[in-house]
Amino acid sequence: VTTQARASLFMALTATFQIMLSRYTGQNDIAIGTPTAGRTHTETENLIGLFVNSLVLRTDLTGDPTFTDLLHQVKNTALAAYDHQDLPFERIVEELAPQRDLTRNPLFQTMLVLQTTSARKIWTLPGVEVQHVPLQATDSQVDLTIDLTLQEDHSAKGFIHFSSDLFDKSTIERMAGHYLTLLQRLADHPATPLSQISMLTEAERRQVLVEWNDTAGPFPADQTIHQLVAAQATTRPDEPAVIHGDQILTHAQLNTRANQLAHHLRSQGIGPEDLVGVFLDRTPDLIVALLAILKAGAAYVPLDPEYPAERLAYMLHDTAAPLVITQHDLAAQLPHSTAALLIDTHWPQIATHPSTDPPLLATPHDLAYVIYTSGSTGRPKGVMIEHQGVVSYMAGMQDAFPIHPGESFLQATPVTFDVSAYEILWPLWQGGTVVLVPGASRLDMAHVGSLMRRHRIVGLHFVPSLMDMFVAQVDPADCTGLRYAFCSGEALPEVLVRRFADRFDGDLINLYGATEVSVDTTYWRASPDSPVLAGRPMRNQTVYVLDGSLRPVPVGAVGEVYLGGRSVGRGYLRRPGLTAERFPADPFTGDPGARMYKTGDLGRFTAGGELDLLGRIDSQVKLRGVRVEPGEIEAVLLSHRDVAACAVVAWEDGARDKHLVAYCVPAAREPDVAELRALCREELPPAVVPAVFMMLPALPLSPNSKVDRKRLPAPDVADLAPSAAHVAPRDEIEQALAEVWADLLGVDRVGVHDNFFEVGGHSLRAVQLVNQVERLTGIRISLRGLFLSPSIAGIKSQLLELIDAQGEE
User: Fold this and answer.
1) What is the spatial distance between Cα 557 and Cα 155, in angstroms, rounded to a whole number?
2) Bridge-based pairing state of the strands 299-302 and 275-279
3) What single DSSP character describes residue 384?
4) Most buried of the four, 188, 293, 530, 628, by CB within 10 Å?
5) Interior angle at CA 735, CA 731 and CA 739, nearest 5
6) What is the pLDDT of residue 203?
7) H or E segment to which residue 491 belongs
8) What are the CA-CA distances from residue 454 to residues 16, 239, 404, 434, 466 (Å)?
9) How many beta carbons lie within 10 A of that of residue 500, not counting itself?
10) What is the structure's pLDDT at 655?
11) What three-state secondary structure class fits 507?
């Protein structure tokens, strides 16, 4: 190969090394270092002294070149570097001025060294016996160095020098094996595109694709989820199924009410594959409605009462929902054209229908629900999940974390999140009890603790930010029944794992998955002695870590995470193009028609076969458990006449919290921030409205003209400060509310007209504020009212109106 390309052995070794690094890092722009002797003139060959200089060899592996093509590129780069080898490396660093970091070498962190002359031949001194003694280095100048010496028989021998802070011996041994495998396969197939050259051995390939995904197990694939739940009405008719405060529905009562509503829905023409909206508070009526929709053969679409009118209107239009089940005090928030069934007002009519199970219409391959997630194109997208996916997933949960008849599970997650499906349907299927946390009380940890004690809760789910509150505020003595504390939705901090282990006896389980795969795929039982991992796949689920050509990457190498198995969803509602892109065929299973989900997450396998997550390929972020596509927020902002360009990122300041920051480039004139904030509130859920708006003359761009989000400036803390027009509390009510704000937000000064969401508040803190105001006054203000008027003056006005209303009653 080198002869045909008129390249040197060093160039071939360099190209192969860069291919290997590309496979391990998932990057195509690879720069390595190499030393040059610096003795380019005859006069310097015998001089004593150090002339060595460092060269940087940068290679672009995009476009799927052949090895021959890549070798030509490396050859040209190397020759150009040799032509300029006298320019000191330090001078290049000085001119380029990269961001300096004491933990790494500037410009390159890996090196390849090829010595073509043996040290034994250099030292031939008369009367002196020279012995070659290899020295054992104790420090690594860069992260990784391959040091080779060419032998007389034209073979090369050497060693790999590495930073033990980054690599262990087994990783380096695997890496050496992959380097040798690549050298052999590239030499045998130099004209083959690199995407078709694997560096895995057959044993390694079988391990990551087959052995670690050997999860097949039985589950009731021929039944729908509501069939399994309904069976408990016969097996355990008088045992509690749903508890909400002092209200209890037994399994028989729940089944009866769901049957009556299902018959009513069918009388209205609702049937298989119809999408029925659910716009209800978290009460037993919510559980009845979900089961009734499934029994009618249809699929439910959860709608959040806190969503702005524009978003609700879009979702109802996108689903073409023929009906929405709601309640009297929420109906006015729906678009006027919506066909609504008021489950509370209309119940006398609904109760006239039969209490028997309606004939089964839905099949395991029909839709069970459609949940909307943030969309990168500016609009939320509906994820379609079938019954078989739900049943398979919950069977996997039961296999890994068995719950028993009569045991209670806490239901605290809003129904618009996929986690709510297993919080509700899994315990009901197993003959357990679902304990509903009323509305905003899910953030009132005193109330959660009382429920834990009263009902001996065995399982619950919180996103890590809420789990942190649970661990800090709930008395372990209230949690003697707790076996499973599930976390998902965002990264699980190691400090939280340690704090949980110190206070509670149950297991803290880190779950990982996506709405697109019926909630979760992998699980990891957290241990304070181990780094946080995503873990292993559940029953009937699979996990792949693949490169851009859908090749499995080696253990320890970085790739994109793909999720497969029986729980993969049908795709996105009315988005065939996006479905084809994100749900490609699964080439690693023999099941015809099997697909996998392209997550966009970066990850790697540990030597033990557990998944380790490393971030995102794109700009998507998780904010307090909410999946946030910056593109959706950016599309809203770009609709404003005065915004020419924008970028949204999540910014974290340990002194405050994690916030969304919107960077805007003005058009003809600078936009009014109040207008931008109001526009976002009209179009977006409260949780994804940016907390900070910053104006920039231009957005920083990468060499390929994309927004370089890493170079966006950090917002000034002053951007979250109270307004300049400070008005101090004017009476006892405002003073008491100001003290609540100050304690909750960690600020010193609060004005009565300050905007809660502009001085550090967010959706979770809003719920905490509602709870604290209720404890202070005995009156529960509306969360929606807080979002509409987020100031102390606005809260006071709400309180006075509620007091007046109570007086009239």
Assistant:
1) 28
2) parallel
3) E
4) 293
5) 175
6) 94
7) none
8) 64, 16, 18, 13, 21
9) 21
10) 43
11) strand
| Low-confidence residues in the chain, pLDDT < 50 | 119-120, 655-656, 721-722, 724
Give, for 683, the enclosing helix (H) or strand (E): helix 673-683
Given a contact cutoff of 8 angstroms between Cβ atoms, the answer to whether 534 and 568 are in contact is no
- Rounded to two decimals, the pTM is 0.82
Tokens of 324: 């929405």
610 by DSSP, 3-state: which?
coil
Query: Where are the alpha helices (H) located in 320-412, listed in sequence order?
Result: 347-350, 387-400
Q: What is the pLDDT of residues 97-146, one digit of tens each?
A: 777 666 678 889 999 999 876 544 556 678 877 776 766 666 678 899 99
Q: List helix spans (H) across 160-278.
A: 169-188, 202-209, 225-235, 251-267
Tokens of 807: 């007086």
Structure tokens at 795: 């809260």
User: Degrees (nearest 5) of the Cα angle 749, 765, 324?
Assistant: 140
Cβ atoms of 371 and 513 closer than 8 Å: no
- Distance from C-alpha of 18 to C-alpha of 345, rounded to nearest angstrom: 69
Q: Which candidate, 282, 275, 306, places its Cα nearest to that of 415? A: 282
pLDDT per position as a tens digit, 542-578: 999 999 889 999 999 999 999 999 999 999 999 999 9
The predicted pLDDT at position 809 comes to 56
8 A C-beta contact, residue 72 and residue 1: no
Please give the Cα distance from 637 to 643 (Å, whole number).
Answer: 7
Show the CA angle centred on residue 604, arms to residues 602 and 607, nearest 5°. Answer: 170
SS (H, E, C) 134-170: CCCCCCCCCCEEEEEEECCCCCEEEEEEECCCCCCHH
DSSP 616-670: ESSS-EEETTEEE-HHHHHHHHHTSTTEEEEEEEEEE-TTS-EEEEEEEEESSSP
152 vs 534: CA distance, rounded Å = 49
Cα separation, 562 vs 512, in Å, equals 12
Give the CA radius of gyration of the chain.
31
One-letter amino acid at 302 equals P
Q: Which among 517, 555, 559, 552 has a CA at the least distance from the CA of 537?
A: 517
DSSP H stretches of helix in 401-518: 419-429, 445-455, 464-473, 494-503
Residue 628 contacts residue 650 (beta carbons within 8 Å): yes
Question: To 10 degrees, the CA torsion angle through 676, 682, 686, 692?
Answer: 0
Helical (H) or strand (E) element with 190: none
- Separation between Cα atoms, residue 661 and residue 212, nearest integer Å: 40
**For strand 571-572 and strand 381-386, is the pairing parallel, antiparallel, or unpaired?**
antiparallel
